[in-house]
């Protein structure tokens, strides 16, 4: 099986189990799960939840290892504005925003699409933004073994917007730097390039 394929065919037993739990929740909040608009909702919700957490079944290392190419290029490679959708592990509500990832090759480059795929593998789990940032950083660092790697994530958390503190405009930024990005000049170049509209 491909290490990153979508779970288009859901495990029937697990889907049914999750479906029953959602039916229970709908009942507990005082709704009628048998009314027309809701009859298929437990199944839809189960499939949505399994899709949003499919990263547990995917292997980010395998994804990277499947597309590493020997190349002498040793300047910075930046993939910026990667959409991120994840679920906070405290409330299981979405947090979403953008990831910016850069690395400096060390004999190998990686297929560009694999970086957003790695972001998705870790985002489609129950997460906190800090751990998501480090999961991506360490996976690239340990697998590609580049001269440096940097990850910045900017995200809004629905648990701070729809409920709780109810702040609509706050954005959380997390970052991690390894290798050459620990040097201030390299880090500044990266931060300048991700804030530029043209890069
Ligand atoms: N550090 C961090 N905190 C997060 C993340 N997502 C959600 N949280 C926070 O997790 C915390 C959980 O705090 P609790 O006091 O246990 O939960 P709560 O009573 O629902 O808190 P409020 O959201 O303040 O109402 C909250 O402050 C959330 O804002 C994240 O990705 N990183
Ligand atoms: Zn939350």
Automatic annotation (TrEMBL):
Residues 19-194 form the GTP cyclohydrolase I domain. Zn(2+) binds at residues 88, 91, 159. GO terms for biological process: one-carbon metabolic process; tetrahydrobiopterin biosynthetic process; tetrahydrofolate biosynthetic process. Pathway: Cofactor biosynthesis; 7,8-dihydroneopterin triphosphate biosynthesis; 7,8-dihydroneopterin triphosphate from GTP: step 1/1. One of its GO terms (molecular function) is GTP binding. It comes from the Bacteria. InterPro entries: GTP-CH-I_C/QueF (IPR043133), GTP-CH-I_N (IPR043134), GTP_CycHdrlase_I (IPR001474), GTP_CycHdrlase_I_CS (IPR018234), GTP_CycHdrlase_I_dom (IPR020602). Signal peptide: none annotated. Pfam families: GTP_cyclohydroI (PF01227). It catalyses: GTP + H2O = 7,8-dihydroneopterin 3'-triphosphate + formate + H(+). GO terms for cellular component: cytoplasm. Keywords: GTP-binding, Hydrolase, Metal-binding, Nucleotide-binding, One-carbon metabolism, Zinc. Its EC number is 3.5.4.16. NCBIfam families: folE (TIGR00063), PRK09347.1-2 (NF006825), PRK09347.1-3 (NF006826). Belongs to the GTP cyclohydrolase I family. Homopolymer. HAMAP family: FolE (MF_00223). This is GTP cyclohydrolase 1. The gene is folE.
């Amino acid at each position: 099986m491909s290490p990153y394929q979508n779970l288009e065919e859901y495990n029937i037993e697990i889907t049914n189990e999750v479906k029953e739990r959602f039916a229970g929740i709908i009942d507990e909040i005082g709704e009628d799960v048998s009314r027309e608009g809701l009859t298929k909702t437990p199944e839809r919700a189960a499939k949505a939840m399994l899709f949003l957490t499919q990263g547990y079944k995917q292997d980010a290392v395998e994804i990277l290892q499947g597309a590493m190419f020997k190349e002498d290029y040793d300047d910075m490679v930046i993939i910026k504005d990667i959409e991120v959708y994840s679920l906070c592990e405290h409330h299981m509500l979405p947090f979403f925003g953008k990831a910016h990832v850069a690395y400096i090759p060390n004999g190998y480059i990686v297929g560009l699409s694999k970086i957003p795929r790695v972001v998705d593998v870790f985002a489609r789990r129950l997460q906190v933004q800090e751990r998501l940032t480090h999961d991506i950083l360490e996976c690239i660092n340990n697998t590609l073994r580049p001269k440096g790697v940097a990850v910045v994530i900017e995200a809004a958390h629905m648990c701070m917007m729809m409920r709780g503190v109810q702040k609509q405009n706050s954005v959380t930024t997390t970052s991690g730097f390894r290798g050459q990005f620990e040097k201030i000049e390299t880090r500044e170049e990266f931060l300048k390039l991700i804030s530029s509209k043209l890069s």
